[in-house]
Amino acid sequence: MAKCEYCGKDVSFGIKVSHSHRRSNRTRKPNIKKVKAIVNGSPKRVNVCTRCLRSGKVERA
Question: What is the DSSP string of 28-56?
Fold first, then answer.
């Protein structure tokens, strides 16, 4: 799985609980996009979560 290169957001694990309270493992995956951004003055493709894109942490190329 990809990881956000700005905030480090990655896959997290938890437990899915059904109505009858049966428990099983589950994964929560972040919404990662591959975008072209300005890194050290030059455009580069980076994996970024949409939260970082919306908050303005990433300068798009």
Answer: E---EEEEEEEETTEEEEEEEEHHHHHHT
The answer to whether 16 and 24 are in contact (CB under 8 A) is yes
User: How confident is the model over 26-47, as pLDDT tens digits?
Assistant: 999 999 999 999 999 999 999 9
Spatial CA neighbour of 17 closest among 9, 25, 6, 8: 25
What is the CB neighbour count within 10 angstroms for residue 24?
A: 8
End-to-end CA distance of the chain: 24
Q: How many Å apart are CA 51 and CA 8, to the nearest integer? A: 12
Q: Which residues contact 50 (CB under 8 A, 6 or more apart)?
A: 31, 32, 33
Model pTM score = 0.78
Bridge partners (DSSP) listed for residue 47: 34
